[in-house]
Every structure is written in C-alpha cells, then in structure tokens.
Amino acid sequence: MQKQKATIMDVKREVENYRGKRVKLEAHKSKKKLYQKEGVIEGTYPSIFTVSVKEDKRPTQRLSFSYSDVLTKSVKIALVDEVEGAFSY
Asked: What is the Cβ-side half-sphere exposure of residue 71, based on CA atoms within 13 angstroms?
C-alpha cells in the first residue's frame, strides 16, 4: 500500500496546532547556507505563517514562511519541548 502524499492543507493544520508554542526552525537561506532559529509561531494565515524570534541583544524579529516551504522541506519545524515533536512531509 502506498503512503498518501501530504497536501498544503495537511501542513497548514499541523502548523496551526503549533501556534503559540516554542519551535526550532531549520531553513535553507540559499543553496549552501542553512540557518537555525528558535521562536514562537505567532500567526497562521491562508498562505503563510509567522514566527517571532527573540535573540540576545537584538530586537524581536518576525519571520514568515509559506506552507509549501515546509512541504518541500526547505523549512523544518520541531517543538522545543518535545524531541519527537518534529514533523516533516
């Protein structure tokens, strides 16, 4: 039996479950550069979601990602509190 392919709606529902929770993001900035940040999923919208990131001695930064970024594995999300809380498609 084949595994059913994930859709953008599946990703959106999963991200909505993480709203207000502290997450660790891993995102590809370019072909060879990868950055990791910790923040809180602040809002979910029809096409994107936002993450509020607070780093030492810097103002709060708000990053936005599309659900397709998660679906295509350009962005990976994991709950900070849970080791097994990561999801990927």
From this structure: 14
From the options 3.40.190.10, 2.30.30.100, 2.70.70.10, 3.40.50.10190, give the CATH code of 8-84.
2.30.30.100
Q: Which residues contact 54 (CB under 8 A, 6 or more apart)?
A: 39, 60, 61
Cβ distance 16 to 44 under 8 Å? Answer: yes
In contact, 52 and 64? CB cutoff 8 Å: no
Amino acid at 59: P
φ and ψ of 53, to 5 deg:
-120, 125
Q: pTM value?
A: 0.79
Question: What gap in Å lies between CA 74 and CA 27, rounded to an integer?
Answer: 6
Q: What is the pLDDT of residues 5-24, one digit of tens each?
A: 788 999 999 999 989 999 99
Do the beta carbons of residue 50 and residue 43 sit within 8 Å?
A: yes
